[in-house]
Amino acid sequence: xxxxxxxxxxxxxxxxxxxxxxxxxxxxxxxxxxxxxxxxxxxxxxxxxxxxxxxxxxxxxxxxxxxxxxxxxxxxxxxxxxxxxxxxxxxxxxxxxxxxxxxxxxxxxxxxxxxxxxxxxxxxxxxxxxxxxxxxxxxxxxxxxxxxxxxxxxxxxxxxxxxxxxxxxxxxxxxxxxxxxxxxxxxxxxxxxxxxxxxxxxxxxxxxxxxxxxxxxxxxxxxxxxxxxxxxxxxxxxxxxxxxxxxxxxxxxxxxxxxxxxxxxxxxxxxxxxxxxxxxxxxxxxxxxxxxxxxxxxxxxxxxxxxxxxxxxxxxxxxxxxxxxxxxxxxxxxxxxxxxxxxxxxxxxxxxxxxxxxxxxxxxxxxxxxxxxxxxxxxxxxxxxxxxxxxxxxxxxxxxxxxxxxxxxxxxxxxxxxxxxxxxxxxx
Amino acid sequence: xxxxxxxxxxxxxxxxxxxxxxxxxxxxxxxxxxxxxxxxxxxxxxxxxxxxxxxxxxxxxxxxxxxxxxxxxxxxxxxxxxxxxxxxxxxxxxxxxxxxxxxxxxxxxxxxxxxxxxxxxxxxxxxxxxxxxxxxxxxxxxxxxx
Lengths: 428, 146
Hints:
The complex is a heterodimer.
Chain A: E1 3-9, H1 12-20, E2 29-32, E3 39-42, H2 44-48, H3 61-65, E4 70-73, H4 76-93, E5 96-101, E6 104-109, H5 114-132, E7 136-141, H6 144-156, E8 163-165, H7 171-179, H8 190-198, H9 204-209, H10 212-218, H11 221-230, E9 248-258, H12 261-281, E10 284-295, E11 306-317, H13 320-334, E12 341-349, E13 352-353, H14 359-362, H15 368-388, E14 424-427
Parallel strand pairs in A: 2-4, 7-8
Antiparallel strand pairs in A: 1-6, 1-7, 2-3, 5-6, 9-12, 10-11, 10-12, 10-13
Helix pairs in contact in A: 4-5, 10-11, 12-13
Chain B: E1 27-28, H1 46-50, E2 57-64, E3 77-81, E4 91-96, E5 99-108, E6 111-115, E7 124-125, E8 131-141
Antiparallel strand pairs in B: 2-3, 3-8, 4-5, 4-8, 5-6, 6-7
């Protein structure tokens, strides 16, 4: 049977920092947004203090001064590099690896026997930690939705030791599905939870047992598929997944192997633009852009190279121009001649609501006039593309300039990507 | 069919020796170099020679004089490979009581110790002490003033 694994890095940004700063281990650590505005990533210890995602950094300054918590500026270059390392280790253990976000990857296993696959997943779990220093949780199941729940179980239930494999029809699977609330299931939002409760569907197990046809008639095809997936029947591809609004990813294979930079740049520009459209559609702003390229792992006769690079945006934005500018710059820096690339993509990271009130205070966005102009331009562009077909209006070369002056007073060194910022160990 | 030929992924992943661009935005790498590359007349690549497993290899600078006997000098560059299980005799990067340090891992009698390459620093027996291995030093790059 074909099995799907979801590998999720634990508190990824904080874990990256901890690899190089052991003093941050087991103390409360948070990573802040652009310009040190608010907390966007938290260690478990920080969560235990009742601090949540999005808490403005200035509200926590007294805790920082007392030395009770540590707040760091975001270091996207480090996170992007560590993410690529995790991906590279996974590629040694699974024939197909699909990045889903900067800290989540799907892997596919075929032809394993049950016990062998569990042992293999446990080894993968150990090796990622050993090689990269990043702790991960692994959920394995025949479908993505079930793999996601398995991953959650691996994270929440210590007895699993970070790896949970679920077989459809097993008592273990049933017990977990009964335990999990509906809202924990991928693609089931709050409103859906309320509607489902009215017809007696309260747990993930209830949903799995519901009549799929009835779900389709009363709700949607998507919910029917989710229910089937919970039974272990794989029917959702990664591209079908409703994004949980925290990141947007657009990627596709180039159709053929290519090393033509112009061609790749054009593809990436389309991805960037498509991503920015999605962003505006869901009324979010992105804080960072990650660009990745992949060679074909099955062409073992060709040299392999799968780089990625994350670029911080000057301020949270949904402006295609800024996103394309960052993506173009990232591509320029990771592209190497001599490799035939199969696939590439653009991820928009750490999204926030465009409507958030505190924004202007915390994130030093564009000036109001600038923002209105940008919104107007983007609105017209989206409208034209919507009415006259995608790609009617698009960008040529991204606007140059826009200096990246960011406040990042508390950023750790870019330990893995800059010669002049390598860790230095005293030998005494 | 036996279990062995049912498994397409590598149960024992091959070690990967491939060039790997250092400048920025490092790569995830897998697979094998093309045999044809030998004929392409490309320049020799030190990464290929020194970086055996890119995903687990990290660069570090060092300061101080405690490892001089093992050929590590102030200002040198270490290539640290986290994929190697440390054995006695390895030079390792370790975290001792929350501090990162570079030592030689040795067995003195039955007692594992972290030893310096300089008589001025006493060996640290790994008894009642919190020590975690960060990685194993695979090579040292020492640049001369010219």
